[in-house]
Design a protein that fits this description.
Strands 1-2 form a two-stranded parallel ribbon. It is 61% helix and 1% strand. It folds into three domains: 47-122, no CATH class; 134-287, Orthogonal Bundle (Hypothetical protein af1432), CATH 1.10.3210; 306-360, Winged helix-like DNA-binding domain superfamily/Winged helix DNA-binding domain (Arc Repressor Mutant, subunit A, Orthogonal Bundle). The protein has helices at residues 20-23, 31-43, 49-59, 66-73, 77-88, 100-117, 134-155, 161-170, 173-181, 186-189, 196-207, 211-221, 226-234, 242-257, 264-273, 278-287, 306-316, 321-328, 332-346, 351-360; strands at residues 47-48, 121-122. The protein has 364 residues and is mainly alpha-helical.
Length: 364
């Protein structure tokens, strides 16, 4: 696997590229103006008309919950971008909205409806202006990455589940900027015989910048909190930790699931940063996307500890106390204690009922 070398960060207002001819060169005009125009184009990315229609219908219901609306907003990157921008730039309390559920709560259903209704839209299978079919391809990958992030949050120790989902949904926004800036850039981004890390290295070699850096700049331009911008900016870094590492792993899982080339070393490194065991990583990669676990929302808080969830998940997989204990690095008696606590907390009479309740509520 090619390993990206560290380079100094280029000035984003430069109109020069060291290999302009190779990728077709940026569009005519001054560098700063081109970059600003590209940022503006991505900021008004068209949304799928089906999404905006569903948002209008759902937000018109009196009993629509924040969780329901947020789930729908998270199905479309363009709507998610517009909602996060509005919540962080005058439509809500700035600095508080680091995830989409908070953004929806800040804007209110009527505000979300107004934001979604203001977007340009496209229909499935139909090209949209200069974007052609790119918005739909981008939306599908972003949503798949969000789904992978939710599965990782269920298996690993991820504290900020909603922030992770939002960062995963927006992780590749910098690619859209580069495509607008550099005709021919899609040849680099679309090279599925290279790993994501190799493509990112090629961007830096060919363009002098890469989509992670540009994406972080754009997120800050939108007024999004540093926790989201930083995860976007570092999601291809070998040294990624925390939210960035979880986004990195989510992206790699999706690329693997769609048949793209991925680096086993990069995936193992990201999993280790997320404190995800090799066994859990293998389970995730093997099952995704066919066994997606319902997402735990704040409307149904889980009363179980991480250890109790892990023990219960072992039961759900048909393991006995000794096997669960070996995997968790605990004694069998400690596992038994964890499971008895589970039964008591959720009011289950036995292991079968405990597994059933936990699955229905999206805890395992």
């Amino acid at each position: 696997m090619a390993v990206a070398t560290k380079t100094s960060k280029p000035r984003l207002n430069s109109g020069k590229s060291p290999t302009r001819k190779r990728v077709g060169g940026p569009a005519n005009g001054k560098g700063g103006q081109r970059l600003s125009a590209a940022f503006d184009a991505v900021s008004t990315l068209p949304a799928l008309s089906e999404t905006t229609n569903r948002v209008a219908k759902l937000t018109s219901k009196e009993n629509a919950s924040v969780a329901e609306i947020a789930e729908l907003v998270e199905s479309d990157t363009a709507v998610a971008i517009a909602v996060m921008k509005a919540a962080n730039n005058g439509g809500g309390p700035r600095g508080r909205t680091s995830n989409l559920p908070d953004a929806v709560d800040a804007l209110t259903p009527a505000g979300v409806r107004a934001v979604a209704g203001s977007l340009q839209t496209y229909d499935l299978f139909q090209p949209v202006g200069p974007w052609a079919r790119l918005p739909e391809r981008f939306r599908r990958h972003a949503v798949a990455t969000r789904h992978a992030a939710e599965a990782i949050a269920d298996l690993a120790d991820v504290a900020s589940r909603d922030e992770l989902a939002t960062a995963a949904l927006l992780h590749d926004i910098g690619q859209l900027v580069l495509i607008r800036l550099y005709p021919g850039c899609e040849a680099i981004l679309g090279d599925r015989e290279s790993t994501p890390e190799q493509r990112c290295h090629a961007e830096r070699r060919e363009l002098g910048i890469d989509h992670t850096l540009v994406g972080g700049v754009l997120a800050r331009r939108w007024g999004l909190p540093a926790v989201i911008a930083g995860a976007i900016e570092r999601h291809h870094s070998d040294a990624a930790t925390g939210l960035a590492a979880a986004v990195r792993l989510s992206d790699l899982v999706v690329h693997h699931a769609t048949g793209d080339m991925v680096s086993a070393e990069a995936m193992a490194s990201a999993a280790e940063a997320c404190k995800l065991s090799e066994a859990r990583l293998n389970q995730l990669v093997y099952e995704f996307p066919h066994a997606r676990i319902p997402r735990q929302r704040r409307a149904e808080p889980c009363p179980l500890s991480r250890r109790e969830i892990d023990a219960l998940r072992g039961l759900a997989e048909g393991k006995v106390y000794k096997e669960i204990a070996a995997e968790m690095g605990l004694s069998a008696s400690t596992v038994r204690t964890h499971l008895h606590n589970v039964y008591r907390k959720i009011g289950a009479a036995d292991r079968a009922q405990a597994v059933l309740v936990a699955r229905e509520r999206g805890w395992i």
